[in-house]
Amino acid sequence: MSDDTNIRWGHASSRDAEAWSGMYLTREEAITDGRQDYGGDDYWITSGHIVPLEAVLPDADDIIETMSSRAYDEAGECAEEYPDVTNEARVELEGLLRGWCEKYARPTFWVADGEPEFISLSAERGEK
After folding, report:
1. I want to staple 58 with a disulfide (CB 3.0 to 4.6 A). Which of 47, 62, 77, 124 is the partner?
2. Of 104, 98, 110, 100, residue with least CA distance to 54
3. What is the pLDDT of residues 65-93, one digit of tens each?
4. pLDDT digit string (tens) for 29-70?
5. What is the reported pTM?
6. Phi, psi of 21, deg, nearest 5
7. How far is CA 82 from the centre of its chain?
8. Which runs of E-coded beta strand occur in the chain?
9. Rounded to an integer, what distance in angstroms lies between the CA atom of residue 31 and that of residue 24?
10. Residue 70, Cβ neighbours under 10 Å: how many?
11. What SS3 state is found at 125?
């Protein structure tokens, strides 16, 4: 989490939640929305980070291997060397993939990796 712009906050009914609701920019927003969502019950909040594009970005080798496999399935041994591309072509394909993903497929989801914090509404109301 080196970049604060990638930090997000969410809430859940359990410390061990598999999914956290929300994608808030601040802790305070997560608390406010949690109060509304849980209707007076206690809940948890945590922070995390937006998944970086590099974590989901396919690379040129993925595409080239798929092409090779499909060619072999279609034509057999005569397609064994397909596609025979240069390093320059691989680099160009990497750039095309990254550009397309940056434009159309940037991750808009986050992973909770902060220390969960218990929000006790009953304590705020003075209940025991």
Report:
1. 62
2. 98
3. 999 999 999 999 999 999 999 999 999 99
4. 999 999 999 987 999 999 999 999 999 999 999 999 999 999
5. 0.72
6. -80, 145
7. 33
8. 7-12, 21-24, 43-50, 110-112, 117-119
9. 10
10. 12
11. coil
